[in-house]
Fold this protein.
Amino acid sequence: MRFRRNIERIGELMAYEISKTFDYSPRNAETPLGTATIPMHDNQIVISTILRAGLPFHQGFLNYLDHSENAFVSAYRKYKDKLKFDIFIEYIASPRIDGKTLIITDPMLATGGSMELSYQAMLTKGTPREIHIASIIASQEAVDHVSRVFPEDKTTVWCAAIDPVIDEHSYIVPGLGDAGDLAHGVKD
């Protein structure tokens, strides 16, 4: 429970930081005593998460960007042996993303492969105006990979920490371990 809530809290903080990059326009709000002009963001936001590890992180984003649309992509590793694996996408549920701000959340960005395939799946729903990749911990290898394969002119990578390496199992070192297992229990 503590791990899930802390992941959610980090999502809230990142959502706030990312919101500083949005476009804002003044809007009038009626109060009991008069009218106040306040800045409101103009962005149409879609928050996409990679199941299952990303769910608490996604919720943190929704706590702050509560008018956002939501998208979910399943990406998982299917191991050929102890060290080699392929990444598979089996499911996507998403609104259209044409011209919208796409925020893709995944707490751990180890190789960047799941993020790349999830983005490719999202492109079946349109082309976003801008892309924010949000991760709590990433390896330097994954940040480099994402920087190569995502459109440079409209992609920003947000990471709370970048760890130097991934091990032979493609786990971030020192990292946190398997975020999905820590948040939801060990899978069989």
